[in-house]
Write a structure and sequence with these properties.
alpha+beta; globular; two-stranded antiparallel sheet; seven-stranded antiparallel β-sheet
Length: 303
Amino acid sequence: MSMTTPCHDRSLSRLRAVESESLRKFFFTPTKDTPMRIRLLASALLSVALCFATLPVQGGSFSSSSASETLKFTPEQIIQFAKQVEKTLAGKGAHVAILARMGRPAAELPEGMHFTHVAFAVYSEITAADGRKLPGYAIYNLYQQNDHPEISSLVQDFPVDFFSGVAVMEAGIIIPSPELQQRLLEVINSPTYVALHDPHYSLIANPYTLGKQNCTEHTLDVLNAAIYQTSDIGKIKANEKAFFEAQTVNVSPLKLILGSVFSAEVSTSDQPGKPVTATFETIGKYLQKYDAGSEMLILTPQP
């Protein structure tokens, strides 16, 4: 099985590195068009300078769950925080919750985006290594495949796995109303949960359209399957267009164009207009507006 990476941990600011490398190749690889490219260089550099004017330059991949990555916190810190999250969920009687993590510092993310990966936490009976049956939370994720980042898989793991490799020890939690939790359990344990998965991944998938999907869009689709008690993706998308307010992707058009050309995990093919995507925050606002009794909170390590 291919190794996987939490979907938004390959952050949008990776486009900065993509932009730099693609411009280098375009302008400085000799061809018969080299004179024309040199004439374009001055205006292109001005455009790049304007694009970068309000963004800190960062390079490299934003993956933070690959097997080769150095942990930013000790295993003991990760275990302690994972237990704190589980105790908080259990203390609130949550059978199903939406959990978010920070794969990168907030300063490295575009405006309006704070968390990089979202999944369902489901209260379950978990089999320990020694065969014992223990109560706890299983995490239902949509992960990118490391060797094919444009493809995603549905993967189940646990809170310790979920928070390993985080850049900031902070969790976003949405606890739906008890009625919606029950409906979510029914969807997650049915063929609908898998049927709503589109493996064609895009970091900035548009939640209003079909053809591309990321972890937040799949989470939103599952939520609406539960809310409207339907597995019909057409009806789900119609209601999302009518009632869900997506987050504008605040990244320059040049970065998005170059990113879609040079990075397999970035696509604008499902973006008919200004790019938008679903986030933990927009899902939280949606439930607070339409799901009476839902709760949204941020958790940091206890002192």
